[in-house]
Design goal:
Length: 497
């Protein structure tokens, strides 16, 4: 079908897809379409609408460098304000007309004869794209716990990724399974309205205070009138986070005391919030701070001191139609079961979440099983030409998803522009370039916190099925940005069909 032949197909209209589209437009490439399985843009900020959802790095850094908002209402924006920002960027850059909503990609295959990706959708259409940017994001597939009986619960079950705004928890008996960053935001909010709340914890989480306040109107006016003031605030916050992550986590073996210092801060926070030493002992992680994603909250730990909230640390035996049974035989009856059990990430079927077949019909998922998780510059894989994955292994420099996305999309745009300039129909990363990058990443990982023995028992998702922190790019985001702008284009082999 001629109307479905494009230079570029972008899968997903979250921040990564949006940034990719802006990059293409800036480079003068207008023949692209964005396929979005939902009926709205925004990815994670469209989907995550649970009570308490908010960013947990300051808003000034959680925005594109080229589209800065001067009037963030809070230091840590609530989810709804981030979603408004997404909508504003999409409209400002005229992207809505490029998006096909309710269009889920079910698989994609590289045609080696004419160097095009055939992208199939759930609706039975096939699109043809010279280049495919799969902006599938990190947290788009809900993970349901592998607990006996979870499908048999007779009350209401809600995964935090699919929050049901119409379900009122007021006066209910509620269980939350999971104590990750989502649970830390959710638990204090719902504790105020439910009759009883049982929080099932498998691995405790480190929490530090959250310096969140409303941004005074005078500061917002200043940021609006004087962009350099806004840039300075962003630069200062970014530098602080970057240096802490780089020295404490990425190069942990050099300065291990930094992380210990932050752990002491978290320990004091716990002592202040929870006077009971026994409850404190149960809430305190035994692994080092940073091994697992920590959270920021001023009221999470304190919530467990409420009369209507219980921390349950016994292992769950099974879920019954009317409640949850733990291994000690106790059954706690509930009306609503909330699964704060996270997302499928770097699991066989999760990145990108649909089968991709490259040269020789090789399935990317199998390629990663055979070759371990790896991707050149965290975005492309040898044998899968004209394809850019956001994210792919080795993408995560540290903190702001948007900072990473800006670098990744710049990489993709450089390769696409280079191929078009040279009349090439094929741009595939050379195996030796990918091997070189992989060795660099693997060596760098040895210095990270994640492979340190102090992370034992953290059950961290930073480690993949081979026990390697393959999502991590053990470099600063400044390096990643520099490399996105400067990596040798010769690392890609160009051909013309
Ligand atoms: P998560 O960090 O993966 O946490 C899932 C929780 O569910 C963990 O406590 C896990 O226990 C527990 N769990 C999973 N399966 C279980 C089972 N079978 N039995 C008992 N417990 C089980 O997921 P999340 O809290 O949704 O957060 C995911 C990521 O989203 C975060 O790391 C963060 O990057 C992002 N996030 C960001 C923000 C923000 O920036 N504002 C907010 C929320 C989330 P174990 O620890 O033992 O595995």
């Amino acid at each position: 079908m001629s109307d479905d032949v494009h230079e570029v197909v972008i899968v997903g209209a979250g921040f990564a897809g949006i940034c990719a589209a802006i990059r293409l437009k800036d480079a003068g490439i207008d023949d692209f379409v964005m396929l979005e399985r939902a009926d709205d843009v925004g990815g994670t900020w469209r989907d995550n609408r649970y009570p308490g959802v908010a960013v947990d790095i300051p808003s000034v850094t959680y925005q594109f460098s080229f589209a800065q908002k001067s009037d963030w209402r809070r230091v840590f924006a609530r989810g709804a304000e981030v979603k408004d920002y997404v909508d504003d960027v999409v409209d400002r850059y005229g992207l809505r007309e490029h998006v096909r909503f309710n269009t889920e990609v079910v698989d994609a295959e590289f045609d080696e004869d004419d160097h095009r990706w055939r992208v199939r959708t759930a609706g039975g259409r096939t699109l043809s794209a010279r280049f495919l940017i799969s902006a599938h994001g990190v947290f788009s597939k809900a993970k349901r716990p592998d607990i006996d009986g979870v499908e048999d619960f007779a009350g209401k079950t809600i995964h935090t990724l699919h929050w049901d705004d119409d379900h009122d928890l007021t006066g209910e008996r509620v269980a939350v399974i999971g104590t990750g960053a989502t649970s830390v935001q959710l638990v204090p909010e719902i504790a105020k309205k439910v009759e009883r709340l049982d929080v099932y914890q498998r691995t405790p989480i480190w929490v530090v205070p959250r310096p969140d306040v409303r941004v005074p109107p005078a500061v917002r006016r200043l940021f609006g009138a004087l962009p350099p003031a806004r840039w300075a605030a962003r630069a200062a916050v970014s530098a602080g986070i970057e240096i802490a992550m780089l020295l404490g986590v990425t190069n942990h073996t050099r300065l291990p005391f930094l992380v210990k210092g932050i752990r002491k801060l978290a320990e004091r926070h716990l002592e202040r919030q929870v006077p009971d030493p026994e409850l404190r002992r149960r809430l305190r992680p035994q692994y080092e701070f940073g091994c697992k994603r920590p959270a920021l909250s001023n009221d999470y730990w304190r919530t467990f001191t409420r009369d209507n909230v219980d921390l349950v640390t016994e292992k769950i035996q099974r879920i019954l139609p009317h409640g949850i049974e733990t291994v000690d035989g106790q059954v706690r009856e509930i009306d609503t079961l909330i699964l704060a059990t996270g997302f499928q990430f770097l699991e066989y079927d999760s990145v990108p979440g649909y089968p991709l077949r490259g040269e020789g019909g090789v399935d990317l998922r199998d390629w990663w099983v055979d070759n371990r998780y790896q991707a050149y510059e965290g975005i492309s894989v040898t044998g899968f030409p004209n394809l850019f994955l956001i994210p792919a292994p080795h993408f995560a420099t540290s903190w702001s998803w948007l900072v990473m996305v800006e670098s990744q999309t710049r990489h993709a745009q450089r390769v696409i522009s280079h191929a078009l300039r040279n009349g090439a129909t094929y741009a595939g990363v050379r195996p030796d370039a990918q091997r070189r990058f992989y060795r660099e990443m693997d060596t760098g990982h040895e210095k990270t916190l994640f492979l340190n023995p102090s992370c034992a028992g953290s059950n961290t998702y930073y480690l993949d099925r081979d026990g390697r922190p393959s999502i991590v790019r053990p470099q600063s985001s400044v390096t990643a940005r520099w490399r996105a702008n400067r990596f040798p284009l010769d690392d890609y082999e160009l051909r013309a069909s």
